[in-house]
Write a structure and sequence with these properties.
elongated
Length: 208
């Protein structure tokens, strides 16, 4: 377990980005010592109360007590996702509706924005034109950003998605700045795409 935990820390640190959801890979590893701990606790409690039902109940109480700190955050994430999904005017719902109305299921889309905006792919049931569904610049190194940017540019230039949606100008400009040669990209946008109006505050390019 200790070796696996060390290897996970090492692997999750390679990107240089502090994203806590990366550490969900720890869950299967932590289950082993956690299972051992609760087994020992259960055996200890049953040995002292001489009642299995009470032993099980006390073990569950202990598990809830050590988890209570995460409850407020968990409920916030779950409820926020449910509420946002139900709000028709949530940005990624508006984007998703627009994509569904302006593309066929066989056509692709490319977005420039944060992970929440990329939820629009799911809402619209459409695929990204690139291996990278959005440009994740964040705290990544320039070398990593160049890898992301050049791969997106390569995929989009070869796939020509129906829509290119820019939610974050900062991310888009960072993307352009990390392409080895952005001339083919800018030429493609100028010659093959038209900027269209929308009601969700993004820049939208639609293929002619």
């Amino acid at each position: 377990c200790f070796a696996a935990l060390f290897l996970n820390v090492l692997a999750n640190s390679l990107s240089g980005a502090k994203n806590m959801h990366y550490f969900m890979t720890f869950i299967p590893i932590i289950l082993l010592p956690a299972g051992w701990l609760f087994d020992r606790l259960y055996a200890f409690l049953c040995g002292h109360v001489n009642n299995k039902t009470i032993g099980v109940a006390l073990t569950y109480v202990f598990a809830l007590l050590i988890s209570v700190q995460s409850f407020p955050q968990l409920s916030h994430m779950v409820l926020n996702n449910i509420r946002t999904g139900q709000e028709a005017n949530a940005q990624y719902n508006l984007i998703g509706d627009y994509i569904k109305e302006n593309t066929t299921p066989e056509e692709t889309v490319q977005m420039f924005g944060g992970p929440s905006v990329a939820t629009s792919y799911y809402r619209a049931r459409r695929l990204s034109a690139s291996t990278y569904s959005y440009y994740a610049n964040g705290s990544f190194s320039d070398e990593s950003k160049a890898v992301f940017a050049n791969k997106i540019a390569e995929d989009v230039l070869s796939g020509r998605p129906r829509l290119i949606i820019i939610e974050s100008q900062g991310k888009y400009q960072d993307f352009l700045g990390h392409i080895d040669d952005n001339t083919p990209w800018l030429t493609m946008i100028e010659q093959e795409y038209t900027e269209v109006e929308n009601n969700f505050g993004c820049i939208v390019y639609k293929r002619k």
